[in-house]
Amino acid sequence: xRLHLYIARRFLRAFLSMLVVLAIIFxxxxxxxxxxxxxxxxxxxxxxxxxxxxNAPVWMYRILPLIVILSxxxxxxxxxxxxxxxxxRAAGRSALMTLIAPVVTVFLFGILAVAIxxxxxxxxxxxxxxxxxxxxxxxxxxxxIASDGVWLRQGNESGQTVIRADRSNLEGTELFDVxxxxxxxxxxxxxxxxxxxxxxxxxxxxxxxxxVWDLISDANPESTAxxxxxxxxxxxxxxxxxxxxxxxxxxxxxxxxxRFIGQLEAAGFSARAHRVWLHMELAMPIFLVxxxxxxxxxxxxxxxxxRTGIMVLFALMMxxxxxxxxxxxxxxxxxxxxxxxxxxxxPPIAAILLPLGILLHLEDG
Length: 365
Hints:
Strand order of the largest sheet: 1-2-3-4-5-6-7
Helix content: 55-70%
Radius of gyration: 27 Å
Oligomer: single chain
């Protein structure tokens, strides 16, 4: 037990050291990029630094597998150079027994990262995107999904229009049981439209079965309401704007993601990408364990055997390969080419079995 605690402490020390080093490098590089992107002369250095710090948790969370495999390589190479691995083997500890401590440590850390780190990165991502959009002048999201339906916003110099619909097609360009509220630049409402459906065409909404209330005149709006079989309302929205307004699944906390998926599907949108992301986040601890096993599979050997640099290179190549396959499976899952569970869980499980086979072969021949 004491030996397990010792190895766990060595792994945590290596992990925290690698985390700090990569965080410093990232902050410096991202600060330079932000100064170039947002024009620090007009935005201000303090604001650029704030944006950089907001973006840091996102990138550090994304490169957790890289941090884990580098920490594993660092720890086992240091144990091998100090001949501690030889002493451990002489004490009757096999390689698999030695791996229990780092595997359990990284698995528990992975659970904490998903349960706590994921909501933190989701919150900082939302704030970063909102502030960055203000500095870039690109404006806020035009679409929102709520429990009572789909909400959109459009506007220009002549006023704003708020749109609410019970449901939509997958692209968000055709709305059903829809209501339009138009407002003047000064704020008072000017028009209300209720319709069975509305389809976004280039430059306008094609509204079918519309009832239009004029809210400007002094007369009773209901008495002057007019029914139109077809009605056209000018719009500056595009399908790309609506699609981009869904936001990334990574900007939603894993604790809120199941509820958001339900709202998204109830509104008529596809939530496949969000389901894939949810399962991939749940599989993150297993993938981090795979990174430990990959790193250990090539470095749990004495340095006198030589070829240490080649072994480290093989470990990094296998780690990057597993990371690439994981991301490729995510794309296939989001596109519907493979089942969601297969896309999320097969790569980390395969990444565990492969280094386990290598370790068993090296241990037992």
